[in-house]
Specification:
The protein is an alpha/beta fold. The protein has helices spanning 24-33, 49-58, 85-98, 108-115, 135-140, 153-160, 197-200; strands spanning 2-9, 38-41, 62-71, 74-79, 122-128, 147-150, 167-170, 174-175, 188-190.
Length: 201
């Protein structure tokens, strides 16, 4: 059994976050205190390869590169293997250049054009969490989506007991600053024996 948190923020987006100063020691404390085996860095519409490499070097767990994208008026997590980072950063840069306001978003066609074969990634839409990805957009991405993010254990239990819902995931959505005194208990536990993206998918 492994513990994962695939929705973490380490850098403010100019259109999605208030300004904050990221604390790597606080992220390290979070990972160690809650015995987390794998995380993904998923900042809004951007990927900072230098910061990602620094985080990966300082933590003794699997760190996956990701991005939280404004897609069709909702949000979706797109998570990659931790290889070909330069290519991943280049693709995320295209998203960053398209999201130029709080209300801006990319379309499903643009997502496919930018990232190519979506089978290479783990896609997790906001499912029962605002801003929600609409059901018709999930339908368009159905070949690539098996799980959706929810906001609470109650919603997790509801979705996991409903065969018509996506498999639910519960993540912290934290922004790590030096002033943090408590950590969210929202993580997901998976019955697998390794932390590769392939195994998690």
């Amino acid at each position: 059994m492994i513990t994962i948190d695939l929705h973490l923020h380490t850098k403010p987006s100019p259109y999605s976050d208030s300004e904050y100063e990221f604390s790597l020691p606080k992220l390290k404390e979070y990972v160690e205190k809650l015995s987390i085996d794998c995380i993904a860095i998923t900042n809004h519409n951007l990927f900072d390869i230098e910061q990602f490499n620094e985080i990966s070097e300082r933590l003794d767990i699997t760190v996956l590169p990701g991005v939280e994208i404004n897609l069709e008026k909702g949000h979706i997590l797109l998570i990659s293997e931790n290889t070909e980072l330069d290519d991943f950063q280049s693709k995320c840069k295209q998203v960053e250049e398209l999201i130029t306001s709080k209300s801006a978003y990319i379309t499903v066609d643009q997502l496919k054009e930018i990232y190519g074969d979506l089978n290479k990634y783990l896609l997790i839409p906001h499912y029962d969490k605002k801003p929600i990805i609409r059901s018709e957009i999930i339908e368009l991405l159905k070949p690539y989506i098996t799980a959706g993010e929810v906001t609470s254990p109650k919603k997790f239990k509801y979705c996991i007991n409903n065969p018509n819902d996506l498999v639910p995931t519960l993540f912290s959505d934290l922004r790590f600053t030096e002033k943090m005194t408590e950590f969210s208990p929202r993580q997901t536990f998976i019955d697998i024996d390794n932390t590769s993206l392939r195994a998690i998918k």
